[in-house]
Amino acid sequence: MAIDQAIMESVSAGGPPTLRFYGWNQATLSLGYFQSHAEIPADCVMPRVRRTTGGGAIVHDRELTYSLTLPLPPGHTGARRDLYVAIHSAISDVLQRRGITTATYESNVSSGSSQIANSDRQEPFLCFRRRAEQDLICSDYKVLGSAQRHNRGAFLQHGSLLLSVSPAAPALPGLSELTGQRIEATAIASEWGDVIADHSQATLQQGELTAGELDRALQLASERFGNDDWTLRR
Fold this sequence. Notes:
Blueprint: H1 2-12, E1 18-22, E2 28-31, E3 48-50, E4 58-60, E5 63-71, H2 81-97, E6 103-104, H3 105-108, H4 111-117, E7 136-138, E8 141-150, E9 154-162, H5 175-179, H6 185-200, H7 211-225, H8 228-231
Parallel strand pairs: 2-3
Antiparallel strand pairs: 1-5, 2-4, 5-9, 6-7, 7-8, 8-9
Helix pairs in contact: 1-7, 2-6
């Protein structure tokens, strides 16, 4: 989370647009920016962090996480629906090549169902039990969700593709359980990046964090994302 924030600050200051893929070395709960920590179940013993993006809590474990950071278009405010569409369409294409059919939640519900989903009733604690228009659905289960954040000069979208079920969240099957296929994170990341580049007519160059981004990420981890004052602030 600190690295994503550091990259957004770097892009805001003129750094290159950045597409990043990463994973998790242990099951970790990330709270949405606006969530109350009091919602965390009493029996939850996972490490936890608070994201800068909103939405429900995510159990990060057996997944592929991505972040895309771009300069903010002049005069732009609010969410960028085109980014949700582009990134989710790209992974849908990758999965389709493997015989895996997914569709957006928006395309799978009637207008009446959408009204119910967007009512004022209490949202589920976990993000993968919630539904938004561009979420990817496979066999009636959510397998990809994303969230956005921007500052004055850059736009961050990051999200999670659920590859297989986590023992920490056994009620949420991943692509492996839903399709019977073994899904390799590195292969999916490579193909996903290639399709995103094709869709956006961009050229991707593999790189590493700059020294400035790494230093800033370490500072942010200490002051914010690894600090209980930040995690428990709400």
